[in-house]
Specification:
Two copies of one chain form a homodimer. The first copy, chain A, is mainly α and 120 residues long. Helices cover 59% and strands 7% of the residues of chain A. The first copy, chain A, has a two-stranded antiparallel ribbon with strand order 1-2. The radius of gyration of chain A is 17 Å and the shape is elongated. Chain B binds a DNA duplex (30 and 30 nucleotides) through helix 3.
DNA sequence: TTAACTGTATTAAGCCACTTAATACAGTTA
DNA sequence: TAACTGTATTAAGTGGCTTAATACAGTTAA
């Protein structure tokens, strides 16, 4: 379902977390669908179960999945999870702007990039 | 001159590097001016000299300062350094856009943030 | 009911980046 | 000459990430 990159400096649990978050946000994993079990992901990626557990724990804290002992983990209803994530991304966006301006980035350059993104 | 935050998860050398880069970009440290010596910063922040040396080494690699053994480190001419940094920031900006869109961020929200930033 | 699954928790160990520490060397400057 | 500068090296400590080996409780299908 997802893949990890050992040359990536980021911890494996972050790569797993971000990978599944992306699958959920893009709708590849629809609401209510069952996530692969911790042990399944662990086996398919040849990674310790504890590492996957940590990724799932964080996804649950973010509101993207719901874990039920004995049953499994399931993709949660979105909405609140998205708004939490949106604020996080907007915060990074706002941080980026003054820095871009300081190094001489043109305003139109940025607006054009946005136009391109939304005109697809 | 700058401060570091131990609760921040980022390494100290990154905080020092980013802090001085900011001082240079904003013009607080003008072109050609002398940077505080590695030992001075080390003493004022109560941090090992090697840690500061690493921050300076990276700032020099980025083109923001020039270090001369025996004389000191000096703020370099900007231009090339800024363009390297600008591409770095633009890359992050481009990465952020599809993610923001996916979680339902409105295009005008982003454009307005840019307008505000540049209308100051 | 039993067997095989599920999430969850714990303890111990290893690895590696970051950091500290203690020196050392060469060039510069007052 | 003495005190500064950047730079380099080696050794050790710390903490986060990861692995490993279990264990427990709840769920589910045979």
């Amino acid at each position: 379902m997802i893949s990890i990159n050992y040359r990536d400096g980021r911890p494996i649990y972050e790569q797993v977390r971000d990978g599944y978050r992306q699958l959920i946000i893009t709708g590849v994993l629809p609401m209510g669908s069952k996530m692969p079990s911790v042990r399944e992901v662990s086996a398919s990626l040849t990674v310790n179960p504890n590492t996957i557990q940590r990724a799932y724990r964080e996804l649950e804290a973010e509101g993207y999945i719901v874990s039920v002992p004995g049953k499994g983990s399931f993709v949660a209803e979105r909405g609140e999870a998205d708004s939490i994530r949106r604020e996080e991304l907007l915060s990074r966006f706002r941080t980026l702007l003054p820095e871009l301006r300081q190094v001489g980035t043109n305003k139109d350059t940025l607006v054009n990039l946005i136009e391109e993104e939304y005109n697809v």
